[in-house]
Design goal:
This protein has about 100 residues and is of the alpha+beta class. Helix content is about 35%, strand content about 35%. The chain is elongated and about 45 Å long.
């Protein structure tokens, strides 16, 4: 499963894949439309970042619910958000999410 969304001014794409039975990697990309002014990009950034974060969370949870204990996240297009992610190892979820 993956997440893809195009909005006016930006596009968010998030994919996840298992590297092994317990290791999952999420690749997230935020692309702004070419030719946006700096002011327009600043106006769009909070919404684009929130959409990107929610998509990363959803994809990470999908991997954890399928057995991942370690989730790696790589972010392209937003250095600030990309710097938030480090490898985290956790046990399996305590309760299924429906």
């Amino acid at each position: 499963m993956s997440y893809r969304c195009s909005r006016s001014g930006y596009k968010v794409e998030v994919d996840g894949v298992f590297l092994s039975k317990t290791r999952f990697v999420v690749h997230a990309a935020l692309d702004y439309q070419a030719g946006l002014s700096e002011a327009e990009r600043e106006r769009l950034t909070p919404k684009a970042q929130m959409e990107l974060l929610l998509a990363i969370y959803g994809e990470s949870q999908r991997g954890r619910h399928r057995g991942a204990r370690t989730v790696h996240v790589a972010v392209e297009g937003d250095r600030r958000l990309g710097g938030l992610y480090k490898v985290r190892t956790e046990g399996p979820p305590l309760a299924p999410v429906s």
